[in-house]
Amino acid sequence: MAEEQLVTFSLGSEEFGVDIMRVQEIIRIPPITRVPKASEYVEGVINLRGNVIPVISLRTRFGMTRVEETDLSRIIVLQVQTKVFGIRVDAVTEVLRLESEAIEPPPPITLGMDAQFIRGVGKIGERLLILLDLDHIMGGETNHDVCA
């Protein structure tokens, strides 16, 4: 039986999941250097052991209200194709395994979010987990379509 291993995190009352194979690490939020003329959802860049990594505010990317950082706020450092970037989240909740049968395609009306960011909805008992399509989170620049 096929299953996925996911890192789950929260933004407000919503819970999201990303493929654990794309997660490099989860870190506390260091100082973030703003970048002039960057997209609104790019908070800036951080220095992670000598590598400069852009950080995206998922709240801004998804049109949610910004909130103050808390002790639970984290940056999840991801690798998508050849790009490494961080996503700022309210809290990382857990690592879990989800059976493929428990994943449904995104609903036609996607909760006020851009459907391109969502690859499915996972069901865990009564909980619903929004599974993110990381290829679109950064914007067009990571979208290398490969013709098969």
Automatic annotation (TrEMBL):
Which protein, by its recorded name, is this? Answer: Chemotaxis protein CheW
Coiled coil region boundaries: none
Q: Which SUPFAM superfamilies match?
A: CheW-like
Q: Which SMART domains match?
A: CheW
The record's listing under InterPro entries reads: CheW, CheW-like_dom_sf, CheW-lke_dom
Database matches in PROSITE patterns: CHEW (PS50851)
Q: Which residues form the signal peptide?
A: none
According to its UniProt entry, this protein's organism is Desulfosporosinus nitroreducens
PANTHER family cross-referenced by the UniProt entry: CHEMOTAXIS PROTEIN CHEW, CHEMOTAXIS SENSOR HISTIDINE KINASE-RELATED
Q: Which Pfam families match?
A: CheW (PF01584)
Question: What lineage is on file?
Answer: Bacteria, Bacillati, Bacillota, Clostridia, Eubacteriales
Q: Which positions fall inside the CheW-like domain?
A: 3-143
